[in-house]
């Protein structure tokens, strides 16, 4: 009996008449999206609800609408909602259903991208860290049933929240995305089919599904019943971007599902910007061709707390600010790009649409300098230790984020020895009897500290900070702390250090609060605490430029990480987290601050790096000498965009790879630009870049823009290496040298020129060298 009722219900749901009564519909027509049967151009703004304090959600939605958008596009962040297995939190700041309702209240549609993987410069690309407790876990793959099972459970939870808001049910969700840019990770169609089916199973069974990829890789797999959209950046050549897409899907609507308005910042690298002109130019090209788009990001906001991710290789963590050089600034402020978008889009509205009024910006306040008078030394505030024989990563101790201290005893020896760590994730200070003897930085691949002669058993402490899990590419399994072992190297003897005491320092405010603060001076890593009074609240930017490296809690809210190397020197404080009267600030600094003061500024400082010469790829006095070397390939690339494949006459073997650019396409410009370089192995496929390191680049632009030589293998087609472009440009030839990490057999290589509309520095003449031993520098 019950089954019969269910069947009738299901049939009713499927009947078009019924669905029209309940809601509207949205789907694919001939080269157009159709809203209730009429052509509809999507103009979407990507916003991330955890990067915006809840109190400001509606403000940012209204700003997006006033910029000319009719849709808001969101990711869901699995690791935010399921911080422990099976414990789901969709409340308060995590109440994504409320966010979607606010979008609808403001007369806008919604595109939902539930993952499971989202990338987004977010810790582990949105995957929960506790997956890493399984030693052999595999992600974004059918190879691990555990991952698939957890994915299905999360998607089901997401469906419970949001499936009721599908447009066919009377809600505003017009499309739902399956996975995220999967082709830049793999090509297993069955995996994508499984995720697609899980999304449908989760209740997204009426809405139009889509997947997003790049123009260079979208055809690596197909997904029936799912639309395809492309992602690319400001200033792209639109016709080129959609060329092969239109050949393969001649009747599909065109959409750029992530049109990158700017880019994200890495610690220690210049603030990223994309010019208004190049950004608006390609947006206009899309409008003229009736191509739907979503601005990634319309407003980036802030990666509060521990949520910022990292890229690798080489490992490079994301700054806390996710301003993104987007049209709406980190504070919800209106920028020049905002007005440029609004002015453009007013000419391209769909039938019946009008531009809404621009809401007022939020008030900003300054806060006079105040001192953090109290301190609590980390070593005097150790939590209870756990004892283990062999070292283990943070996740094994049920710790997701923060800092971890490993302690053991080293036996005396008359010889000088070294400590070698495999692998350090991500930044550490090494102490002998409480005295710092070395700092190690994963960005540089540091793993060794020299130790002096020790006359007696000596306490060794390794304090490791996790600075964001890799959120992109194959290095995404990124356990924190020390992942494998610590050895003491005595001549040619390697002895593993054992019997560790492990101290966990999680990021929760409730933990920091326990530190015993005093007004005594503190040495070494410490918490600092101060209070300040306010008569009026408002947004502000906390100037932490005199502090070293760590994290900040304001009235219990985790504002995020800071690091003196920049580029950001301020942290965004939403006014709604401040109080009239007394406010409390706690800073954990792993280095010693230059001054124990802080002030609130009305403007952020997002672009002040303290350059770190040790990250440059050419040391003083180095000159690459190729005069005695024999090239394995010499040639000229054809002009134009897109990947250029070169097959060597004979296979070549070696560990050190040198690319030399001899000239530029179509001009005498001395500049060289390379977006990506792939090396092709014997099986005809690109070899893994996980072990690569840049050992030399004759010239790289690292001040005017973030264009260092490692951009040639960051697997981002929109970023590129360029020789110095500001000031006096050095002449050809330009070279970079890679250490591939092991001897490698190559059949050839592929070069991708820059993909923006500019052509400067595209390489024409080249030479390739491959050697077993390092090049002479
Ligand atoms: C890709 C991803 C996004 C984001 C951007 C870069 O397009 O899909 O999540 O990581 O790159 O900001
Ligand atoms: Ca790149």
Report on the architecture of this protein.
The protein has 777 residues and is of the alpha+beta class. The chain folds into 4 domains: 2-345, Glycosidases (TIM Barrel, Alpha-Beta Barrel), CATH 3.20.20.80; 382-505, Jelly Rolls (Sandwich), CATH 2.60.120; 519-610, Galactose-binding domain-like (Jelly Rolls, Sandwich); 616-771, no CATH class. The chain contains 11 helices and 40 strands. The strands form 9 sheets. The protein has an 8-stranded parallel β-barrel. Helix 6 runs parallel beside helix 7 (189-201) and helix 9 runs parallel beside helix 10. The radius of gyration is 27 Å and the shape is globular. The structure holds alpha-D-galactopyranose and calcium ion. Alpha-D-galactopyranose binds at residues 118-121, 180-181, 231, 258, 264.
């Amino acid at each position: 009996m019950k089954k019969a009722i269910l069947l009738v219900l299901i049939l009713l749901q499927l009947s078009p008449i019924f669905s029209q009564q309940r809601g509207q519909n949205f789907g694919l027509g001939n080269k157009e999206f159709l809203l209730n049967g009429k052509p509809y151009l999507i103009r979407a703004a990507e916003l991330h609800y955890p990067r915006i304090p809840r109190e400001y959600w509606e403000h940012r939605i209204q700003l997006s609408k006033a910029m000319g958008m009719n849709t808001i596009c969101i990711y869901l962040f699995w690791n935010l909602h399921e911080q422990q297995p099976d414990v789901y939190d969709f409340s308060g700041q995590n109440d994504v259903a409320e966010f979607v309702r606010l979008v609808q209240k403001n007369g806008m549609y919604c595109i939902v991208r539930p993952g499971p993987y989202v990338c987004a410069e977010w810790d582990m690309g949105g995957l929960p860290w506790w997956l890493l407790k399984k030693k052999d876990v595999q992600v974004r793959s059918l190879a691990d049933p555990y991952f698939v099972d957890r994915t299905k459970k999360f998607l089901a939870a997401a469906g419970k929240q949001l499936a009721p808001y599908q447009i066919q049910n009377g809600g505003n969700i017009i499309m739902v995305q399956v996975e995220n840019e999967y082709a830049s990770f793999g090509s297993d169609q069955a995996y994508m089919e499984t995720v697609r089916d899980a999304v449908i199973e989760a209740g997204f069974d009426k809405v139009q599904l889509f997947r997003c990829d790049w123009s260079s890789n979208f055809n690596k797999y197909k997904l029936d019943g799912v639309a395809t959209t492309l992602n690319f950046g400001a200033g792209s050549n639109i016709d080129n971007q959609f060329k092969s897409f239109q050949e393969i899907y001649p009747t599909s609507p065109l959409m750029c599902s992530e049109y990158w308005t700017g880019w994200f910042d890495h610690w220690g690298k210049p603030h990223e910007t994309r010019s208004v002109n190049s950004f608006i130019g390609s947006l206009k090209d899309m409008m003229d061709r009736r191509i739907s788009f979503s601005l990634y990001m319309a407003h980036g906001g802030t990666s509060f707390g521990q949520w910022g991710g990292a890229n690798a290789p080489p490992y490079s963590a994301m700054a806390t600010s996710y301003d993104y050089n987007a049209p709406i600034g980190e504070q919800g402020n209106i920028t020049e790009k905002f007005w440029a978008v609004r002015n453009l889009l007013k000419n391209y509205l769909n039938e019946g649409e009008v531009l809404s009024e621009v809401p007022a910006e939020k008030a900003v306040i300054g806060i006079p300098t105040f001192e953090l008078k109290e301190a609590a030394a980390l070593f005097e505030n150790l939590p209870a230790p756990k004892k283990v024989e062999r070292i283990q990563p943070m996740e094994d101790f049920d710790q997701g984020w923060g800092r971890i201290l490993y302690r053991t005893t080293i036996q005396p020896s008359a010889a000088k020895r070294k400590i070698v760590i495999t692998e350090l994730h991500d930044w550490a200070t090494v102490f002998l009897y409480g005295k710092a003897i070395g700092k190690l930085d994963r960005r540089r691949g540091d793993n060794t500290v020299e130790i002096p002669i020790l006359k007696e058993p000596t306490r060794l402490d390794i304090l490791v900070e996790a600075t964001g899990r890799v959120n992109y590419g194959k290095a995404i399994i990124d356990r924190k702390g020390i992942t494998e072992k610590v050895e003491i190297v005595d001549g040619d003897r390697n002895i593993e250090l054992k019997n560790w005491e492990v101290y966990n320092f999680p990021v929760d405010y409730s933990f920091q609060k326990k530190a015993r603060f005093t007004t005594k001076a503190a040495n070494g890593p410490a918490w600092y605490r101060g209070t300040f009074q306010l008569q009026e609240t408002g947004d502000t930017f906390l100037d932490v430029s005199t502090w070293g490296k760590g994290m900040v809690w304001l009235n219990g809210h985790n504002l995020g990480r800071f690091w003196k190397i920049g580029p950001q020197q301020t942290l965004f404080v939403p006014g709604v987290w401040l109080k009239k009267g007394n406010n409390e600030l706690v800073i954990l600094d792993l280095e010693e601050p230059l001054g124990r003061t802080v002030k609130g500024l009305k403007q952020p400082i997002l672009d002040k790096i303290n350059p770190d010469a040790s990250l440059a790829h050419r040391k003083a006095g180095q000159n690459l000498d190729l005069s005695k070397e024999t090239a394995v390939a010499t040639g000229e690339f054809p002009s134009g965009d897109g990947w250029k494949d070169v097959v060597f006459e004979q296979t070549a073997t070696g560990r050190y790879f040198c690319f030399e650019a001899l000239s530029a396409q179509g001009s005498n410009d001395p500049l060289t630009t390379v977006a990506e370089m792939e090396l092709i192995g014997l099986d005809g496929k690109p070899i893994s870049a996980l072990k690569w390191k840049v050992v030399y680049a004759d010239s790289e632009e690292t001040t005017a823009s973030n264009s260092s030589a490692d951009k040639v293998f960051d697997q981002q087609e929109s970023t590129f290496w360029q020789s110095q472009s500001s000031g006096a440009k050095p002449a050809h030839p330009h070279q970079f040298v890679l250490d591939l990490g092991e001897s490698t057999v190559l059949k050839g290589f592929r070069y991708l020129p820059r993909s923006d509309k500019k052509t400067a520095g595209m390489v024409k003449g080249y030479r390739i060298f491959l050697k077993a031993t390092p090049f002479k520098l």
